[in-house]
Amino acid sequence: MKRPLCVLLLLAALHTAFAQIPTGDIILKNIERTFQSVEDYTVTLDIVTNIERTKIPPMKATMYFKQPEQVHFVSTGFALLPREGMGTQFGRLTKRYTVDSVAREMREGMPVYRLLLVPRDPRAMGYRARMWVHGLRWTPERVEIPQPDGRAMTALFTYVEIDGHWLPSNLVVSFAMGTQDTTAATQGPQMDRPGTGAQRSGGRTGSVTIRYSGYQINTGLPDSLFTPLPASPR
Question: What pTM was computed for the model?
Answer without folding.
Answer: 0.76
